[in-house]
Write a structure and sequence with these properties.
With about 190 residues, the protein is of the alpha+beta class. The protein has two domains: about 110 residues, Hypothetical protein ph0010, domain 1 (Glycoprotein, Type 4 Pilin, 2-Layer Sandwich); about 70 residues, 2-Layer Sandwich (Dna Ligase, domain 1). About 25% of the residues lie in helices and about 25% in strands. The chain is built from three helices and nine strands, in the order αβββαββββαββ. Strands 1, 2, 3, 4 and 9 form a five-stranded antiparallel β-sheet that branches. The protein has a four-stranded antiparallel β-sheet with strand order 5-8-6-7, with helices on one face. The radius of gyration is 17 Å and the shape is globular. The two termini are about 25 Å apart.
Length: about 190
């Protein structure tokens, strides 16, 4: 999906409106009440289901990140749901309060379809996100994680250990399934926050 700069700006405003209104009214936190009425202009391609992650930062520290690796909802519904789950349901962090919002920055990642690879040599650092699965265990890192884990070995080791609950070397096991994807990232600058 290719979004224009106007679409990106509108999408971020939509996510922020959902975040601000839901912080004030917990009944809105399911994400189901956010319709086209809040976003009057939407590209036709955004009607198709997409996989989306929404990441929240406060003073550049992670404060929530929730998403799906498979396309489940059209763009607006996916963004609303993932924004609100990141803000209020990520078990790693306390729910955001209204007083947190002015320091909160939103980043939306729209995922391409997953593509299975046969060798880690196919992974392009800083371009690919990676989903790994073995048995019931699975985990995913967005391409943005390369900024803090810049080598293939550290990236894959931490993906196995920290995200998938697998042994650190599971990525070298031929029975482990590895898929890659790219993202279209839409993010607020610190100055764009309300």
């Amino acid at each position: 999906m290719i979004l224009s700069e106007t679409d990106k700006s509108n999408l971020l405003q939509f996510a922020r409106k959902a975040l601000e209104e839901s912080a004030q009214n917990p009944d809105l936190r399911s994400g189901t009440g956010w319709t086209r009425a809040y976003y009057p202009s939407l590209p036709s391609q955004a009607q198709n289901p997409v996989a989306v992650f929404v990441t929240l930062f406060q003073r550049e520290k992670l404060k929530g990140c929730v998403g799906t690796i498979l396309p489940e909802h059209p763009l607006l519904e996916a963004v609303a749901k993932m924004t609100l789950q990141s803000a209020f349901c990520d078990p790693r962090f306390p729910p955001l309060s209204s007083s947190d919002l002015s320091d909160t920055r939103i980043e939306i990642s729209i995922l391409s379809p997953l593509r299975k690879i046969s060798s880690v040599d196919e992974i392009l650092p800083f371009q690919h996100g990676v989903h790994i699965r073995k048995g019931w265990n699975q985990g995913v890192f967005l391409p943005q994680v390369w900024q803090t884990l810049p080598t293939l070995e550290t990236f894959m080791t931490e993906l196995c250990r920290a995200k998938a609950g697998l042994p650190s070397s599971a990525w070298r096991d031929p029975e482990t399934e590895i898929q890659v994807f790219t993202v279209e990232s839409v993010q607020e600058s610190e100055h764009a926050q309300s």
